[in-house]
Design a protein that fits this description.
Blueprint (H helix, E strand, L loop, with lengths): L1 E4 L2 H6 L5 E10 H7 L7 H10 L7 E9 L12 E5 L12 E7 L14 H8 L2 H11 L7 E2 L2 E2 L2 E12 L15 H4 L2 H6 L1 E16 L9 H25 L6 E4 L11 H14 L4 E5 L3 H19 L7 H10 L11
Parallel strand pairs: 4-11, 5-9, 5-10, 10-11
Antiparallel strand pairs: 1-2, 2-3, 3-8, 6-7, 8-9
Length: about 350
Amino acid sequence: MLGCKAGLAQHRAMSHEPCLSLEQREFEAAALVAAHPPRFRHEAKRMIYEQASRTPQSGTIHYSRWAPGALPERLPAPKLHSAVVPDVFDYAGSDRGVWHLNFADPHLFIAYGSALLAQDELQVLEHPALGSLREALLAAQLPAVTEENTRPTPVLVAGVERRCVLDTSPDLDRPQGLYGNHFAKAPLAAIKSALRILSPPTHTNIIAMAAPVGRGRYSRAQLGGILLTAYTAFAAAAQISRRLWPEAAVEVRTGFWGCGAFGGNRTVMILLQLLAARLAQLDRLIVYSVTQSGVLDYESGVSALRSLLAASSLDPAIADLLQQVEERGYLWGVSDGN
């Protein structure tokens, strides 16, 4: 295991950096899972883990946690390609330089072992070594968090095995599907019928960042905090990708971050993620909208950013763009109950 840690005082002294590493550690996956097996408390999750763990883990898991520096003052020249997919994550293709978002709680993977099955818990269920990672951090008395002292500290995990696929969509065996609160109510047989073991496992790179909570009209501070969180995480992904896969394009696959249980505004969250991706100089941002109707929400965010840039100078200041977003009076929505 390798590790290094830097304090927030160092982060403040180096605020010109896009992001600063707070911890970086490497874990041999087999040793990590053996020493810190995930603790699934729900019967169906234990069944899935047993089915998915019949072969040993392999490879190295790279863990890191990051603190923000300062946002760039200006928007760089565009190189970002963005697109929308009307589906859930399929994790298809190579993992080199490709990162999938985890819609995280401030406490990293905190509910993974429970009966809950929102996006965070589903991702850990399919990548069970993420549960082992949480247990290892807690055992080492390291912060298993994606926020600290009200500041974002997104977590990145590279090289974790995806060992199974759980289809949460409605079916004859599961007419309500398995997502969210439906998982806890589903018969074990229906869950078994939705499970597919991956042999061999694939590998995934994860960005865990917590979404904000609010109501009423978005404030300038909220908008700036959302942008800073996403920029820090995306810039860290670009930095790690350059080290692990120097020739690969950097791609982040995301969705309507913070727009489920927290009732975030989809237009705002797409707009700010697109802006963060440009600031971090990603090559691609792919948005998974789940449904065809979600494509319209993605297009609304794209259109909103396009209109902001059209009304600005060729070299727009980030502070001015955020001010214009605030003046549009975007409103928070309501929780979807998941």
